From TrEMBL:
<dbReference type="GO" id="GO:0016301">
    <property type="term" value="F:kinase activity"/>
</dbReference>
<dbReference type="InterPro" id="IPR001206">
    <property type="entry name" value="Diacylglycerol_kinase_cat_dom"/>
</dbReference>
<dbReference type="InterPro" id="IPR016064">
    <property type="entry name" value="NAD/diacylglycerol_kinase_sf"/>
</dbReference>
<comment type="similarity">
    <text>Belongs to the diacylglycerol/lipid kinase family.</text>
</comment>
<feature type="domain" description="DAGKc">
    <location>
        <begin position="1"/>
        <end position="126"/>
    </location>
</feature>
<keyword id="KW-0418">Kinase</keyword>
<protein>
    <submittedName>
        <fullName>Diacylglycerol kinase</fullName>
    </submittedName>
</protein>
<dbReference type="InterPro" id="IPR017438">
    <property type="entry name" value="ATP-NAD_kinase_N"/>
</dbReference>
<keyword id="KW-0808">Transferase</keyword>
<dbReference type="InterPro" id="IPR050187">
    <property type="entry name" value="Lipid_Phosphate_FormReg"/>
</dbReference>
<dbReference type="Pfam" id="PF00781">
    <property type="entry name" value="DAGK_cat"/>
</dbReference>
<dbReference type="GO" id="GO:0005886">
    <property type="term" value="C:plasma membrane"/>
</dbReference>
Amino acid sequence: MIYNPIKVDLPLLKAAVAAGEKTAGWRETLWFETSKEDPGQKVTAEVLALDVDFDVIMIAGGDGTVRAVAEGVRGFDVPVGLIPRGTGNLLARNLKLTLDSVDRAVSTAFAGKDRSIDLGLVEVEREDATKEKFVFLVMAGLGLDAKMIANTDPDLKKKVGWIAYVDAIRKSLSGNNSINIRYNLDRQGNRTVKVHTVMIGNCGSLPGNILLLPDAAVDDGVFDIVALRPEGFFGWVQIWVKIVWENGVLRRSQAGRKLMGMTKEVRTLRYLQGKEFVMRLEGPEEFELDGDSFGKVVAVKATVEHLGLTVKVPAGKDVR
C-alpha cells in the first residue's frame, strides 16, 4: 500500500485492508507513505527494489498520487489497485470505480480482475531549454486550464474541494489568454492555431457529469485532443452548450444523438485524435498533468504507450 497521509483516514484504511487480507487469504500488506517532497515516484522505486514478488500495489490518494506511482510502476509487470481519496479522482471516475467506499475499493484491489489501460508520456521543454519527462493517466492541459490549476489555493481546495476552482477561474480569466501554437499531429506536418486551452486526453469525463472528450477511451491507443477557441462571451456560451448540454445530456440517449446529428460543429471547439502530438509555443505557458500544476513550458511532445498500465477493476465489470 502506497498512501498519501494527507488524503487518507489511516485507521479506517488499515481496518479495511486487514479485513480484505483475511477474506482473500493474503499475507500482511506492506505500507509506505508519500510525502510533500516525494509524491510517489521515489517510494515506488523503493518498493519495487525490495526482494518481494508483489501481486498488487494499492494506491490510496488523489489523482496526483496515482499519477506519481504509475510513473514509478511503468515498465514493471505489476497491477495497481486504486483507493480513491482525492478531490477529483478522475481516473477512478473514468474507470467507473467506487468513490465512496474504502471497503469496496480495497476488495477490488484484492479480488478484482486486471484491466490494461493506456499511459500518456510527455516530454516538456522549459524556457531555459531543459527537458523533463512525465507520465499522465487522465489529461495534460495547456493554457487557461493550466492557469486555473496554478491559481487554485491548495488550502481552500482541501477545505471545499472543486468549489475552490471558481476563484481560480476568476483569476485566470483576467487579461489576454490567447496562445499561438505551432503543432504537429502524427507527423503530418506543422500547423498553427490560436487557442485559449489545449487538452490532451486519455480519458474524457470530468466531475459534475461533464463529458469533455466524448470519444476518449482509456485503452484505444490514441489521444483525444480538444482546443478551446472562444471569441468573447458568445464563444464561451457555445462551448458550454457543446460540452455540458450536447456531450453531457443529448449524447446519452438515442433521441439525443439524433438531435446532435442535426446541429453544426462550432468553431470554438476543435477535436483531434492521434498517437503523437507535438506543440511549440511563442512563449512560456502554464502546464498541468492530471490536475496538478507542472510549471511553465515552451514545448510539449505527447505520445501514447498503449496498454502500459494494469489496473484492478471489479470482477463482474466488463473490462472493455
